[in-house]
Amino acid sequence: IQGRPSTLLKGREAIRTILARHDVHLSKEAFIDNGSGLSRLSRLSAIDLANLLTSAYGRYGQQWLNTLSLAGVDGTAKRRFRGSNVVNAGWFKTGTIKGVKNIIGYVRGKSGTLYSVVILVNHPQTWQGAAMQNDIIKWLVQNY
Questions:
Q1: Chain segment 49-60, per-residue pLDDT in tens
Q2: Which of 47, 89, 133, 138 has its CA 20 to 30 A from that of 72?
């Protein structure tokens, strides 16, 4: 998109350009540090991530879901939802660093509707956030 040599700034601009081509417009406050997902400098809002999820599913459907961890079956959601109503009804990407516990993805409610889920926790006691995230996701699957 920007030509050589590559730089972080060019990479950040390329990400925004590619997302915009797919009608995903990041907020002005959004900042992608290095793309690894492990930077404490990166900032994306829940709305930014929900818009990305909506666009990705709209464009790729089940093929996109298959790239995410299936609840109770594989990846980072294998143990997390084992034995719950979320097994085989949730597709997630998780992210954890000290003081941060995030989960984004989709759940299929009892009605059959697929919902986007974004729950971001930034707190020193992330274990409490993980329990809350799990409870919210289980509730969504059970009630909708």
A1: 999 999 999 999
A2: 47
